[in-house]
UniProtKB/TrEMBL annotation:
It holds the Pfam family FtsA. It comes from Sporotomaculum syntrophicum. GO terms for cellular component: cell division site; cytoplasmic side of plasma membrane. Cell division protein that is involved in the assembly of the Z ring. May serve as a membrane anchor for the Z ring. The keyword Cytoplasm does not apply. This is Cell division protein FtsA. InterPro entries: ATPase_NBD, Cell_div_FtsA, FtsA/MreB, SHS2_FtsA.
Length: 401
C-alpha cells in the first residue's frame, strides 16, 4: 500500500520468577521506540534463573507471545530474552591479532577476535556465554568506534564476557525452541536490560546504581560512562516477603500478598485480620508483627545493596544516585527507608512506554521486556554475537544442536 511504513519489529521476552512478559516494539519508527503490543502470562516456572518444567515454560512463553503479537498485528524478526541468576559469571579481558587480507578489517576479523576473547577469559566447559558487553575495538592501539573497513596492522578488542551455567542455558534454549522463537533470538543479562529501560542517558554517563527488586531476585548494576562496571544478584526479592508473611501469619500466599501491598513498611496500629491457611476462620495478629516481618526481609535486601555500594568505594560521589525498579520497588515507604539506609538519593525508575496499552498498576511487569526489546536498537554490531557464538567450540548453544 503506497505510503505505508515498513515496521522493523523486535520482541523483548522476560522470563521472570512470577510471570512471563512480552513487549513488541517498532524500531523503524521515526520516534525512538513505538510500542505495538504487550503480553503477560502468570507462572512460577523459574527459580533463581533456572527453568523447572521446560514444557510448561514453553507453553507459557508461547501464550504470552501470542497475546503480544495479536495486539501488535505484525510478525517479528528478532527477539531478545533475559538470563539472570546468582551463578552468573562476569569476566573482563582483552586480546589482539594481526590484520591480514591487505590489512583491512572485515567481519571475519571481528568475529574471530570475539571468539578468541571468549576462549581466553572463559575456558570452562561448564559455562555458556550469554553476551558480550563493553565491547571496544582498537586498531594499532587506537580506539575505533566502527573498525570494519579500517586499515591497520593490529586489531585489538577489550570486552566484558557474561556467562551462566551451561545447564541453565540449555534449559532456556530448549524452552525457546519449543515455544517457536526464531534462530535470530539473542540472550541478554536481565539486569542490563532493566537498566536500558529505566535509566536516562545522563544517569548512565555520570554514574548510577540500578536496583531491580523482582519477585525472586534482587539485581544490582553499577553503570558509569555508559559502561557496565559491576553487577551482582541476590537470590531474594519481593516474593520472599510474601512467603515470610504467609508463614508468620499462618495464612495463604494470596492473603499475605494483599497484606504486603496494603501496609508496606508503614507502622501498623492495632491488629491485622487474615484468613486462616486451613480456609476456615481468621487469624488475628499484632500489626507490629506484620511490620517486623516485612522490615526484616527488606533490611536483608538493603544490606546486600549496601555491601555492593561499599565495595565500589565511591565515597559520597554517585551523581546519578540509585534507581529502584521492579515490582518490589512499589512497596509503600521503601523509597524513604532505602534513602536513609544507603545515605544516597533514591528514585523509582519506570518505563513509560506501555502508556494506555497496559493498566498502570501492571506497567511495571513490562520494564524488563521493554528494556530487552530496546537493547537491540543500540547495538553497534547487530547480529554479531549470534554469528560468533556458533564458533565457540560448543560453549554456546545454537539452534542447530
Amino acid at each position: 500500500m503506497p505510503g505505508t511504513v515498513k515496521k522493523d519489529v523486535v520482541v523483548g521476552l522476560d522470563i521472570g520468577t512470577s510471570g512471563i512478559a512480552v513487549a513488541v516494539l517498532n524500531r523503524s519508527s521515526v520516534a525512538i521506540q513505538e510500542p505495538l503490543g504487550f503480553g503477560f502470562c502468570s507462572s512460577m516456572i523459574m527459580e533463581k534463573g533456572f527453568i523447572g518444567d521446560s514444557e510448561a515454560a514453553a507453553y507459557n512463553v508461547k501464550k504470552a507471545l501470542d497475546e503480544a503479537l495479536t495486539a501488535a498485528g505484525v510478525p517479528f524478526t528478532t527477539a531478545y530474552v533475559n538470563v539472570d541468576g546468582p551463578e552468573l559469571v562476569i569476566r573482563h579481558g582483552s586480546v589482539k591479532q594481526a590484520i591480514t587480507r591487505r590489512q583491512v578489517v572485515d567481519a571475519r576479523d571481528l568475529i574471530k577476535l570475539q571468539q578468541h576473547l571468549c576462549e581466553t577469559v572463559l575456558p570452562e566447559d561448564v559455562l555458556s556465554i550469554i553476551q558480550l558487553d563493553n565491547i571496544r575495538f582498537y586498531i594499532d592501539g587506537e580506539y575505533v568506534f566502527k573498525p570494519q573497513g579500517c586499515r591497520g596492522r593490529e586489531l585489538g578488542l577489550s570486552s566484558t564476557v557474561l556467562a551462566a551455567p551451561r545447564r541453565q542455558m540449555d534449559l532456556i534454549w530448549q524452552c525457546l525452541r519449543n515455544a517457536g522463537l526464531p534462530p535470530t533470538t539473542e540472550t541478554v543479562v536481565g539486569a542490563l536490560a532493566v537498566a536500558q529501560g529505566v535509566l536516562s542517558g545522563v544517569e548512565r554517563k555520570l554514574g548510577v546504581i540500578c536496583v531491580d527488586l523482582g519477585a525472586g531476585m534482587t539485581k544490582v548494576v553499577f553503570i558509569n560512562h555508559n559502561m557496565l562496571y559491576k553487577l551482582s544478584i541476590f537470590p531474594a526479592g519481593a516474593g520472599n516477603i510474601t512467603a515470610d508473611l504467609a508463614v508468620g501469619l499462618h495464612t495463604t500466599l494470596e492473603a499475605a500478598e494483599k497484606v504486603k501491598k496494603e501496609y508496606g513498611l508503614g507502622l501498623i496500629a492495632g491488629d491485622v485480620h487474615v484468613p486462616n491457611i486451613s480456609g476456615s476462620g481468621y487469624n488475628t495478629v499484632p500489626g507490629s508483627l506484620v511490620h517486623k516481618i516485612i522490615k526484616s526481609r527488606i533490611e536483608e535486601i538493603l544490606d546486600f545493596v549496601k555491601e555492593f555500594i561499599e565495595e565500589l568505594d565511591l565515597g559520597a560521589s554517585l551523581p546519578g544516585g540509585i534507581v529502584l525498579t521492579g515490582g518490589g520497588a512499589l512497596l509503600n515507604g521503601l523509597t524513604e527507608v532505602a534513602q536513609e539506609y544507603w545515605l544516597m538519593p533514591v528514585r523509582i525508575g519506570f518505563n513509560s512506554l506501555p502508556g494506555e496499552e497496559a493498566p498502570n498498576e501492571d506497567a511495571y511487569r513490562y520494564t524488563t521486556a521493554i528494556g530487552l526489546a530496546s537493547w537491540g536498537t543500540g547495538q553497534v554490531y547487530p547480529g554479531m554475537r549470534q554469528k560468533a557464538e556458533k564458533g565457540f567450540k560448543g560453549r554456546i548453544k545454537s539452534w542447530f544442536r
